[in-house]
Amino acid sequence: MHASLSSLVIVIVAAFLTPLLLHRFRLHMIPVVVAEIIVGIIIGKTGFNIVEQDMWLETLSTLGFLFLMFLSGLEIDFSAFANKKKRKGEKEPNAFFVASIIFVGIFLVSLGLSYTFVWFGYIDNAFLMTLIISTISLGVVVPTLKDAQLMKTTIGQTILLIAVIADLVTMVLLAVFVSTYDPSHGNTWLLLGLFLVGVLFYFAGKYFKKRSFIETMAKGTIQIGTRAVFALIIVLVALSETLGAENILGAFLAGVLVSLLAPNQDFVHKLDSFGYGFFIPIFFVMVGVNLDLRPLFTQFDILLLIPLLFIALVISKVVPVYMLRIWYDRKTTLAAGFLLVSTLSLVIAAATIAERMGMIDENMKGALILVAVLTSVVSPIMFKKLYRVEKEDRKKVVKLIGTNQFTLAAVRDLRADEYEPTLYHIRQDKIEQTEHIFPIVDIDDYSFETLQAHEALTADVVVVLTGNEQTNAQIATWAKQQGASRVIAFAESPSIVQQLKDVGVETISLALSAGAMLKAFIESPNVVHMLTHRDITLHEIEMNNLAYHGVLLRQFPFLGDCIIVRIFRGHESIVPHGDTEMRIGDRMIVTGSEEYVKELRELLEGEYH
After folding, report:
1. For the whole model, what pTM was predicted?
2. pLDDT tens-digit profile of 367-402?
3. How far is CA 318 from the centre of its chain?
4. Which of 280, 391, 439, 535 has the most CB atoms in a 10 Å sphere around its CB?
5. Residues forming a β-bridge with 587
6. CA dihedral defined by 158, 160, 166, 169, rounded to 10 degrees?
7. In whole angstroms, how far apart are CA 79 and each of 83, 206, 483?
């Protein structure tokens, strides 16, 4: 018992110290999960060999792997599969169509390369090698795209969709492979039973999701949502093994089901923190602990496999992805290809399964995992070296549907160097007969056809204030469906407000706004003065410059006479102080002179590098 607890303590302390060391030495280029494997190698069989394998670590490591597969399924944003309407003049591809074509290319190239490894005698089964070469790590792709602020761009969505399709297809094919080639496992057709049960769970989850008693039980000590997720994982894992599939397929399917149910982001963050805060680090450290790399350097054929497999992974991704050269420059295309070279968790799964089935030996397994670790280090570094965002001076396009005293007043105060507004109104409506420096478009009605013909539904921001709440809701929904980045609609009724929030529309109430402003006038007149006077107003700046990621505010020398009033990080509102870290994606509320605010905006929203 003493030995097992000692090993557990060593692994948990190692998992705890790893991100601290990365932060201390500013090794942001290395993914944390890769660093955990490297630390495991140091304390494991290859290094000091101070960790003993036992039931404690084996159980926690297995749970970590299952939770990793669950979160991989949860990472899939199925809204990305929607065919969003492109804006007029955009020369960009249909992300889903191009991603599907590229993945087919990746799979075919991988199939051809796998026969090379069969010919060299490294492996007997070309199909297994195809799965190993064609898989892509969502765990590396997603954080890298988030850091680069590319998740909502067409190129980012295309890269993400290629990784998502690869993850889905290779996971299912791995389950089919095991069922086909392993006599101890069940029939492939039994997998349909697993997916059928998944469909039933989905409809059950959808039915209970909005029940009021579920919302009540989701708080406090009950946390019914978290209990439901763990019950779902365990049930599907057990069912997966019973039907002859790998347990990881059940965990992955559980993640996909939860993603389809569109949980709120707070709940997703809770699951992320639970997984990446405890179970998953133990799994990755143990991957490194169990790797014995010493024999790899005594066998020339295995040593030769490492660069050959790495080259195969690069060729299988970069060659098909070069199709993007039709729409993007050479560096952007190569950057996308190198990012998709990354592979990790599914290779570990495939290598573990293949060793269990006797298709590869322990040394071959070690070589496969080592190459996967190398790709996870090299590919994000290559992406960041190759990818450059051309600094845009493009103004934000704002379309305001419904011209009246509110929209006219708002547009007058928008900065001309940052926003390009257009107002739309019915011909019969009377508006101020004064000279305007912004365009006002006369339209016959608020029908979908009319608005679409005048390109009123596609913009960075669409604001709807027609005077009719139902019309506002309908137009706002159309704008969201047509791919407008942000849609703001005026609504008073709670039912319509909820309806619009469900489809991602931001709502504002004139009555509530007027009441809030009056209250502020009474209680804090100087705050209202700041909000309404341009020379001392508040500004929102999004931090997109990777060079300042992780920098403390007291170490940031470029504030001038600007003051950071608040920092919004996801759903978190942070009161800034000297030891507050700046992070990619932070939205900073600042006040100060116009000159310094402009300089600060250019600095923090500068190009990604």
Report:
1. 0.64
2. 888 898 888 888 888 888 888 655 444 577 888 888
3. 22
4. 280
5. 542, 568
6. -100
7. 9, 17, 11
